[in-house]
Amino acid sequence: MTLFGRTFDGTEIASLASMLLVLVLWISVWRGNRRESHWLKTWNAERKARREAEIAAEGGEPRSPSEKSEPRGPWG
To answer: In a 10 Å sphere around its CB, with 0-12 CB exposed, 13-18 middle and 19+ buried, how is residue 69 labelled?
Structure first.
């Protein structure tokens, strides 16, 4: 095979093909990671909005975990 005036043998063609496959694999993993992080951010935002709506529906202010108004855990 000749490309730009240079003749490539079998090993050079195989290495070019493997580098191209590695690039495709890297791009697909990168895109999947981006999708996962985007999904996680939207899920956290929706979860926070649902929690704030529940608190507003109860008519109370969000309490800090340090308040000891009710016992928590198996030991009270």
So the answer is: exposed
